[in-house]
Amino acid sequence: MTHDSRPAWRSYLTHLECTACGLRHDADQLQTVCTACGKVLFARYDLNSVRQAVMPREFASRRWDMWRYWELLPVRDAANVISLGEGLTPLVRVRKEATRKLGFERGQLELKDEGLNPTASFKARGLSAAISRARELGARSIALPSAGNAGSAAAAYAAAGGLEAHLAMPRDVPELNRVEAEVYAADVTLVDGLISDAGRLIREQAPRNGWFDVSTLREPYRQEGKKTMGIELAEQGGWGEACLPDIIVYPTGGGTGIVGMRKAFDELEALTWIGRARPKMIVVQAEGCAPIVRAFQQGARMAEPWQNAQTIAAGLRVPAAIGDYLILDAVRATGGTAVAVSDEAIREAQLEMGRLAGVYAAPEAAASWAAVGALRRSGFLDGDERVVLFCTGMGLKYPPPIP
Amino acid sequence: MTHDSRPAWRSYLTHLECTACGLRHDADQLQTVCTACGKVLFARYDLNSVRQAVMPREFASRRWDMWRYWELLPVRDAANVISLGEGLTPLVRVRKEATRKLGFERGQLELKDEGLNPTASFKARGLSAAISRARELGARSIALPSAGNAGSAAAAYAAAGGLEAHLAMPRDVPELNRVEAEVYAADVTLVDGLISDAGRLIREQAPRNGWFDVSTLREPYRQEGKKTMGIELAEQGGWGEACLPDIIVYPTGGGTGIVGMRKAFDELEALTWIGRARPKMIVVQAEGCAPIVRAFQQGARMAEPWQNAQTIAAGLRVPAAIGDYLILDAVRATGGTAVAVSDEAIREAQLEMGRLAGVYAAPEAAASWAAVGALRRSGFLDGDERVVLFCTGMGLKYPPPIP
Question: ipTM of the predicted structure?
Answer without folding.
Answer: 0.95
